[in-house]
Amino acid sequence: MHDTLFFGFLVALISILFFAKIFGEIALKFGQSAIIGELLAGVIIGPSVLGLINVNETSVLTSVLKSLSELGAIILLFEVGLSTNIKEFLKASGWATAVAIVGVVVPYFLGYFVFLRFGLASQQAIFAGAVLTATSVGITARVFMDLNRLETKEAKIVLGAAVIDDVIGLVILTIVLKLVQGGKFTTGMITSVSGMAILFLVLSVAAGVLIAPSLFNLISKMKQSHTVFVMGIVFCFIVSALSTKVNLGVIVGAFVAGLILSTTKQSEKIKRDIKPIYAFFVPIFFVLMGTRVDTSTFNPFIVANREILVLMAILFIVAFVGKAISGFVVFKKGINKLLIGISMVPRGEVGLVFALLGLDNNVFEPKYYSVLVAVIMLTTFITPIMLKYLMAEQKNS
Length: 397
Fold this sequence. Notes:
Shape: globular
Order of helices and strands: HHHHHHHHHHHHHHHH
Number of strands: 0
């Protein structure tokens, strides 16, 4: 029995990692993020196409794969925090804050009302709207980096706004998770959960910034190999576990842990050492997300699907426009407002985490999850193309 289970586990891992790398490479060849390829790999090996992996089943193997996927989500958000310059984060200008707030509020309410219009309950619409709030820091930063534009005024505003955007999004996520887990949607609940989330973030970062540099200076003197990296991961797990004790998601704690360790002298070493772990666990997370997509949802020849396809088209417009207009709150002269707005469009990894939490908590049906993932993938796909065009236009003008 044990040998059969372990054989099945190895076959599942082989399938996930092999297809993740093949399709990730294909995505890169077409100038897209590897995330797109990993999601597509999941769709193809999932139950709606080849049927090699099915995490909708209840089994020991499924539980193990889901646990590996959750570790991938933690490592992903830990790395995002590590890659965030906390000084720039704390010094984010008023323009970045304004862009972030508009880029969260407008897509959220537009998404909320669209889902209500298509028959979802208020609670479902609240969560689905939250999926549209988060901007992908990684995708936007990668495009600016590839085009040597990281030092521009637009890039600084966008990257600052994207980080603030994610923090606001994480607070929103905490509120909606509390709601779907039985909490009542009241002003007191929102105030309580928001206050707890902000207090946890502020106190954790403040305490961590004071303690972590000295602690990791001491750890760096230890003789065993990779001790700094291992203790960095341990620190991440501790903060992630603590975040659950104040009713915050583990990904909030992982992000905070990374943000704290970004202030240490050892941060670059931890980032360098985490790359192999990241390369193993994070693709598992994205591939398994892809396996949850039901491709039959997008078959236009099935009459029942046509309303869903209309919903997807409208949500894509909402997701795109809701972020694009955020750039126009910057009234500073010499700033390309459209470039800033388009840079905020990709939802990427954090939006996918939100969507999966909605599915796992039975907030909405698999078909709505599939639509949200498709919208996230479309925003991630179209943004690099548009940014390259806008930057080329700006350079030639």
